[in-house]
């Protein structure tokens, strides 16, 4: 008999509780944190701030970098097992993450539970464009600089790497030491603004309530540090909705690899997952992983998100039935009436009596 381990729909949350700080104890001098993990041969010290850094000092992460899309040819990443390294790619996960017998029976009765939802962090869960703009404006104010209001400058600030913006767009830094100092301060300002954020994207909480009622597992994928991600989700009261999270500690080298890691943690085949993204690069990464993509119009206009399987302006436009239709409407001739098979009832037989003379 085929064995199958079932996880209850109300699985315990993977998020550890944030440590509480006593307000009665006197505040110690503001220390400098040094992180043991080097990044490109350097260690960045970030000063703890009173706006939220007391419990969780942030790691630099990959906030202001231009990440690779990944999985262009179905490639994945390596994970390590007791018997050696294991190569995990799109085809491997689609083949190995098969439903067992009991799961097939359950999903036949509740088909929505067969899906997995993966939410990107930027502008899908939190309005990170505002956080980035505020960080750049605060940095400009501290440095006595001005940020041009041109459209291409704003686009570079929101979607470009900090090195490129500082050196080629704003021309604020030429020396490497100055560059590192401005980048460290920019990241610090971003996290300070992040820990003040307590409101998710409009309509997200109602949508997650509907998804949770339907029993669909959800994951969130981000390049933030895990502790910072947990604190931000707790502040917005969203931790209970996510069964898994993918963060900087997972060491994923591309957007697609984060999506594949989230599918593994949800125990769902990539071909049964739906990615919620706001960026055309994220939509491409989802399709490279054989996942469906739902794009949120806002940070990018609708004409830049035409590759998505579904584009919405807000979460209130969605219903759980839309997820089924994403997987049902396959093929370019789905609605072509000339190619649809029309079943006709057979003609009635006329009963006759043969008379032999």
Automatic annotation (TrEMBL):
Pfam families: HAD_2. Residues 1-31 are annotated as: Disordered. InterPro entries: HAD-like_sf, HAD_2, HAD_sf, PGP-like_dom2. Residues 1-27 have a biased composition (Low complexity). PANTHER family: HALOACID DEHALOGENASE-LIKE HYDROLASE (HAD) SUPERFAMILY PROTEIN. This is Haloacid dehalogenase-like hydrolase superfamily protein.
